[in-house]
Amino acid sequence: MARTKEAPRRDPLQPQRLVDRGIVDHRRTIEFTFDGVTYKGHPGDTVASALLANGVMLAGRSFKYHRPRGILSAGSEEPSALLELRDGARREPNTKATTAELFDGLVAKSQNRWPSLDFDVMSINSLLSKVFVAGFYYKTFMWPAALWEKLYEPAIRRAAGLGRASDAADPDVYEKTTAHTDVLIIGGGPAGLMAALAAAQSGKRVILVDEQAALGGRAIDDGSIIDGRPAREWVRSVEAELASRPDVTILRRTTVFGTYDGGTYGALERVNDHVAVPQKHQPRQRLWRIVAKRAVLATGATERPIVFGDNDRPGVMLAGAVRTYINRFGVVPGDRVVVFANNDYAVSTVTDLINAGANVVAIVDSRPKPSEAISRIASSAGTKLLSGAVVTRALGKKRVTGALIRTQSGAEVRLFCDLIAVSGGWNPNIQLSTHVGGKPLWNDDLLCFLPGSLPPGMLLAGAVAGNFSLPKALGSGADAGATAVANGTKSVSIPVPKAAEDSVRIAPLWRVEDHSGKAFVDFQNDVTDTDVELAEREGFRAVEHLKRYTTLGMATDQGRTANVNALAIMADITGRTIPQTGMTLARPPYVPVAVGALAGHHRGKSFKPTRLPPSYKWAKEQGAVCVETGLWLRPSYFPRPGEKDWLDTVKREVNTVRNAVGICDVSTLGKVDVQGKDAAAFLERVYMNNLKSLAIGKARYGGMLREDGILFDDGTVARFAENQYFITTTTANAVRALQHMEYCAQWLWPELDVQIISATEQWAQYAVAGPKSRELLRKIVDPEFDISDAGFPYLQVGEITVCGGVKARLFRLSFSGERAYEIGVPARYGDALMRQLWEAGREFGACAYGTEALGVMRIEKGHISGPELNGTTTPRDVGLGGMVSKTKDFVGRTLGTRPGIVDPERPQLIGFRPVDRSVRLRSGAHFLAKGANPTAANDEGYMTSVAYSPSNGHWIGLGFLKHGPERVGEIVRAYDPVRGGDTLVEVVKPVFVDPEGARVRG
Amino acid sequence: MRIACPYCGERSLDEFIYSGDATVRRPDASAPTASEDYVKYVYERTNPPGMHRELWYHAAGCHAWLVVSRDISTHAISSVELAKDVALANNQAMKESA
Amino acid sequence: MANMLKPTSAFSHLDPLSTPSLSVAPREDLTMASFAAGKDQVQAVMATIKSAYGVDLPRRPARVSGKGIAFVWAGPDQWLAVAERGANRDMERELKSLLSAMASVVDQSDGRVVVRVSGPLSRQVLAKGIPIDLHPRAFGANAAAITHASHIGVIMWQLEDASTFELAMFRSYADSFAHWLIETAEATLPATA
Ligand SMILES: [Zn+2]
Questions:
Q1: Do both A706 and A768 map to the same domain?
Q2: Domain of residue A14, CATH code
């Protein structure tokens, strides 16, 4: 590399900025504030690079000890420089300064400090560090447990500190999308770019994803020369070539955060994180689900720090990051630099520093014998080389002022500097290869884990596979790209550009022995080497235990700068090798993902889809109050002026149905058309009761069991023709009941000739109930159809026309116990039919009623519904035991006769009314014999449904009671400790209106 | 995970519903041992690692019931068949052996 | 007596969108019926449809169109017939008369509603809610699929035109679907000044 003699020019307004370096836009200057002070930067900067350009190294305070922290890295592995960005509703804590792109007007604040970053009261935690050692959550605050929520946790939270999220709703929108591709290339560095080029030759679909705003990865960071020209020019030409291909998609500012089964990858695109406010309708972030036949992992490597005393001081920076700031951003992070390394990466670090005009005070190389490359750079740069030496401690508090060095001979040397550039070697970013269980392998030459077994379809390229030098990275990228599209045949290679070979020699050094001060392993979670030792002493030697005991690696950086060092230290103190010590597998997400991005469109009212019944619009016009039942939004009641509460309204609705006529939208019930020569035989096997005798034109109640004998669903079965049935299910079970019937038809009895088609939504179906229902319907049903009681008796069904020829279906069914019908028309006429019924109903005093009145009336009649069909009850429990066929096989038959299912001690459905009629009943109350203690052993059942019965003038209930039917007249206790209820109730028959059932028949 | 529906092609897991062991067959309710047979059929399951034959339902797709052979340790799927075909073949085999 | 009932759209707030890059419009003018072949009747059903409409019913997800009618695969041995209602076409009646003995025919004209999405951006918009591969090589002219869009079950198909899709969903989801579609379209269309 050519060296300039004269120091490069600097920007007078940004003291550490080189005016002619990097890929930032030097021509434009933008302003931002950090802790209230205004600074200048350029488009293309990160917050970190802009802070460094202005000489700001102190970025925040640490999580536990509130130690001053600076900027360790230049990427998403950053554990220290976590800021609060933006303000107002967009305020976002714990944002990495090293990845946050600068924009004009950006407001950044430091975190975990009070009252100011410079003077932080809580740094007293540092003095209390004995309290905060590993395992302190488990040990210190064990007793008394009652104080945990009130005292311990709030105190620890305040003292330990986290950033503050905004209290306001997130004003931005997020988006989700799916992409399918032949090849996904993860990482747009030299290896990834070569892979993309090679794969793109095939004309297949290629998606190239890169974390940063600009492609190029370490080729840009290292200021490499490729094919004789600066990397940025080479990158530009590759980008242009890729962009010219229609089936290549480049996603910048996008991080693949997870590998999932089946070649599925999750990625987060930060579409508008780099602007203050997204344009109208534009998403802030986009979540990608990428389904890839092959994936090329070209994620590079992350540099390791070395663990030494006070290695967290602002001004201790990874050597690779130093180079990134110089080459990508044109920023010199320090002017007097000590380079501390165990490997030859120090060589190019020194070159870059000197070219940037910095003074390299010394190269501290832990290897006793200097490598040839190191010796050469030291002599050509005229820099002091201390071989076999280590930095034992960083000096200075809020900024490094020097380094304490122990030389090979053991002498202590103190050097003044403002930056310590550290390289402990490189960890390939293998995380995405381990998410679905791939086991990493330790490599003793490179001193790092490499991907071992790979997920199906995954290939490796570049540093992630240990190809640390640029020529190897370029070559392996070309190979991987070609192989990814080769499809088993011979791959087509592309020419690999030339680049200089760098030495990557390394010798182990994880931690400096006998250091003074705290030596951090995990910077973000404030875990030190002594915490690792403590864990070992207390027996937490397994790497999974170490992690949980110390919280090491469990912060938002996933311990990317910490895990291998911790493992190596544990290996050291336990006398094992690193592979013997183990390795934790990473889990998604590789970087934090906002919940908003995972939700996308589906938040607030759009959290899940809403289904609207056909009369919804009309009901809203009538002032209906609606309730969510599953996905449906159904009218609950229709209040009228002067009614003081919902109960008032429901009383009126019930009374109107019982005395005149009411209309209710019951379209939400599941409706299934069952046809075929074996339809009857099929239904016989699906339903517990006899259906063989069901005549054409008739309907009947039908109950379905699960195979274990428990009630599953109920509804009606209507027969329209010899081989055509139309069944209804409950609203709640509509989807599951269809699934169950398809299971029966396809898996249990595939030999039957039966076709099952959902017809739920074809029909707008309204219950018209009450003594005047027939008179009302007479005005709707076309005159040629006889709906007299003789012509259309109870349980009759028929195909008719209404309102002048609209095809319709009429069912004489009743849930309310009154004379009642259900009338169905094709759903597009549903709104109009409701309006017609409403108009026609005027003269009869008709009302509309909702789910509340529906519920009251079914309880008054003792009909079971959701609370009784609760997944634990049998036909006998709900009083339908007599209906169960003994002469046929059906789902649930055999296990429905098990001793536990037919046990006479099982609570059975019965009715209740309060002894003191003014008392309100509560569902969920448990029954106890009068005078019995409220113990589980004395439990005799529970109340399932309650309602105020306008017909009775008091509360009524349904519930399950041991021997219930035999105990009519007995007084029992309804005990409800949760809500403080303890009421005496009388056991009554579970029918509170028209016990003879005369009204349904007219 | 992705399952290749024989009709719809490869689809993501969220279109499917898992529904248990596909190796058990609904017993004859008229057999003298029906009670025990049904207890086994409904409740008794081993859960060894390795290859399982499972019933899945293409709920958000074609509504076909499927028999999926899947290694539950790796999620690798070695075959996907239509449950209806498997059931008919079983019936045929039973008939032939009877 | 004349029909007193006026049909209502299931979409209470889907304003048709028409831009050079994307158009969205409900199709309210369709008559549809699903039909499922009875046991051992698939060949008979296919032959009948062939002779009546001149098309081969697909046995896999796909659409075929004949004169004034299209058939979309809707499940194993099951299809959805789609035609314009015009003056008084009734697909259920029409197919019942053809297939009475060999298939179950169920009216879907009201059970499902159809939205047409077309234009160069249609794939990009739909991919934001639909998990299947919509690349022209994977989902081209007359392709069909049963899947979900924004958590709502759909049968979708592409017309002969390279970027025109129709999606059929259960009627009650119409507004939720329209809400998602319009919000997504707005986010995808080039931002306006
Ligand atoms: Zn399918």
A1: no
A2: 3.10.20.440
Q: Under DSSP, is residue A618 helix (H, G, I), strand (E, B) or coil?
A: helix
C42-71: average pLDDT: 97
CA A220 to chain CA mean position, Å? 34
Q: Residue A898 and residue B59: Cβ atoms within 8 Å?
A: no
Residue A804 lies in a domain: yes
Task: Tell me the pLDDT tens digit for each residue of A520-574.
Answer: 999 999 999 999 999 999 999 998 899 999 999 988 889 999 999 999 999 999 9
In a domain, A958, yes or no: yes
Contact (CB<8Å) A264/B2: yes
Predicted pLDDT at A821:
98
DSSP A291-348: EEEEEEE---EEEPP-B-BTTTSTTEEEHHHHHHHHHTT-B-S-SEEEEEESBTHHHH
Interface test with C, best of B3, B11, B14, B62 (most C CBs within 10 A): B62
Is the CB of A609 less than 8 angstroms away from the CB of C150? yes
Among candidates B61, B82, B84 on the partner chain, residue whose Cβ is nearest the Cβ of C146: B61
Q: Which residues of C touch B9 (CB under 8 A)?
A: 61
How far apart are the CA of C157 and the nearest CA of chain A, in angstroms?
18
CA A989/CA A991 separation, integer angstroms: 6
Domain ranges for chain C = 22-28+112-188, 30-107
**Does residue A179 lie within any of the structural domains?**
yes
Annotation: CATH topology of C22-28+112-188: Gyrase A; domain 2 (3.30.1360)
Question: What's the mean pLDDT in A32-42?
Answer: 97
Peptide bond into A589 cis (omega under 30): yes
Last residue of a domain, one of A453, A485, A517: A485
Find tokens 């235990």 and name the residue.
Answer: A545
Beta strands in A43-154 (DSSP E): 60-61, 68-69, 82-85, 92-96, 106-109
Query: Does residue A760 carry a pLDDT above 70?
Result: yes
- Same-domain status, A741 and A777: no
Pairing of strands A847-848, A662-665: parallel
Q: Do C111 and A180 touch (CB under 8 A)?
A: no
Q: How far is the CA of A629 from the centre of ligand 1 (A)?
A: 28
Q: State the average pLDDT for chain A.
A: 93
List CB contacts (< 8 A) between C180 and chain A: 601, 606
Q: Which of C34, C61, C12 is nearest to C177 (CA)?
A: C12
Asked whether residue A196 falls in the same domain as residue A295, the answer is: yes
Q: Are strands A820-826 and A806-811 parallel, antiparallel or unpaired?
A: antiparallel
- For C30-107, give the CATH class: alpha beta
**ipTM > 0.95 for the complex:** yes
Chains adjacent to B (≥3 CB pairs closer than 8 angstroms) = A, C
Determine contact, residues A339/A391, Cβ cutoff 8 Å.
Answer: no
Question: What does the pLDDT average to over A450-454?
Answer: 95
Q: Compute the distance between CA of residue A52 and CA of residue A32 in angstroms, rounded to an integer.
A: 13
CATH value at residue A935: 2.40.30.110
Same domain? For A630 and A726 the reply is: no
For chain A, percent of residues with pLDDT exceeding 90 = 88
Does the domain spanning B2-97 belong to CATH 3.40.50.300? no
Task: Provide the residue range defining the domain that includes A956.
Answer: 904-1001
List the end-to-end C-alpha distance of chain B, in Å, as a whole number: 40
Chain C residues within an 8 Å CB radius of A826: 107, 109-110
Kindly give the residue spans of alpha helices, DSSP state H, lying in A447-562.
470-486, 529-537, 543-550
Asked whether residue A736 falls in the same domain as residue A780, the answer is no
Domains in chain A, number? 5
**Of A724, A758, A792, the domain-final residue:** A758
A996 and A935 in a common domain: yes
CATH for A845: 3.30.1360.120
Question: Is the residue at A969 inside a domain?
Answer: yes
Q: Tell if the CB–CB gap between B42 and A707 is shorter than 8 Å.
A: yes
Identify the H or E element spanning C65.
strand C63-66
